[in-house]
Specification:
The chain is 40% helix and 16% strand. It is of the alpha+beta class. The chain has one domain. A 3-stranded antiparallel β-sheet has the order 1-2-5. Strands 3-4 form a two-stranded antiparallel sheet. Helix 1 (37-46) packs across helix 2. The longest helix has 14 residues, at 115-128.
Length: 141
């Protein structure tokens, strides 16, 4: 079977019971937007600042990983069906209500949206990069 490329315009419907978590509800459905590499890079860039290293006097990137994860989650979770509040009434999918879902569900939704694929590609890229040799290696080499 051919590989299907997803775009940011596609939608993925995932049942709560299909997330592989205990007590998943088959009547609760999450509508996700795929997390593409381009969107991931943009979100990382938005939440990265450059600070001056006091020793080297060079600007170094400083990522706000919590803000990046929150931004990815807000991006991928587009809508839901079957989510109710404590009053047993349906809850609209808003940024504030999205935060009410637990960390485990949030992680599972990000994984379904494609974060695990992006991370595996970045890890492979980092592992394949040969860094510059250290001065000691050059001198002793």
């Amino acid at each position: 079977m051919a590989r299907v490329l997803l775009s940011a315009d596609d939608r993925i419907e995932v049942r709560d019971s299909d997330l592989g978590l205990p007590d998943g509800d088959p009547d609760t459905v999450y509508i996700l937007r795929p997390l593409t590499t381009e969107v991931h890079r943009d979100l990382v860039k938005q939440h990265t600042t450059y600070v001056l290293n006091k020793i080297t006097h060079q600007k170094e990137p400083k990522r706000d990983d919590d803000a990046i994860v929150d931004a990815m989650y807000d991006y991928v979770l587009v809508d839901w069906r079957g989510v109710i509040g404590s009053d047993h009434q349906p809850v609209a999918c808003t940024p504030a209500s999205k935060r009410g879902l637990g960390t485990v569900i949030r992680a599972a939704l990000l994984e379904r949206a494609g974060l695990n694929q992006i991370e595996s590609v970045e890890a492979a890229d980092a592992a394949s990069f040969r860094g510059a040799p250290t001065l000691r290696a050059v001198v002793e080499g």
